[in-house]
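Example record used in the benchmark description.
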Amino acid sequence: MTDKPAKSRPNARVVPLRKATTLQMVRLACPDSGQCALISESFGLPVLDSDGIRDLHEKLIIDTAAALDEGLGERAMQIHMQRIVGAFVGSAYGAGQFYSRAVSEARDATAKSACDDRDEDVSGPVGFGSAAQRKREFAADMALQAHALRMAAEGTIAAYEKIVGEAWKPFERVVDNPGQSVDRKAAEVQMAALG
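Model output (structure tokens):
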């Protein structure tokens, strides 16, 4: 008996499932007003006007929508605003993730510098702090940035609700392949979940 070569099947297109970024994810990743004020006080950084940032961005988006009102239909306005708010939320979430990594690095460096047997983190010449101190200061700067972007995102979400008349939710593209059965789609989702 001879072996028949296996039929080559076209590779199925694997579409990675990506969770859309929500405001809740931003709030978990970025510092709130109280934490931001504490960081500013502890590091001698400026205190941000959180409410002012939020209100300004809300007004900015409402004014933008008013300028576009005659040129866009209701559905087109909703889609445009969805994209704008999504960009602000995505930016804030990215900043929050970066801030979290900076905090982790600062914690690691601070823990290492607490060891008396190490001399890598000893202060350098006068006027230069230790590596651990620089990492803490960098994390504090990233905290302010993440918080500012969080407030901007919250302002755009508030504007979206006023413009569109419903709460903002992240856009999730439905990947649809009409040639596949429901069982096949379910199998692909299950296999993707397994890794």
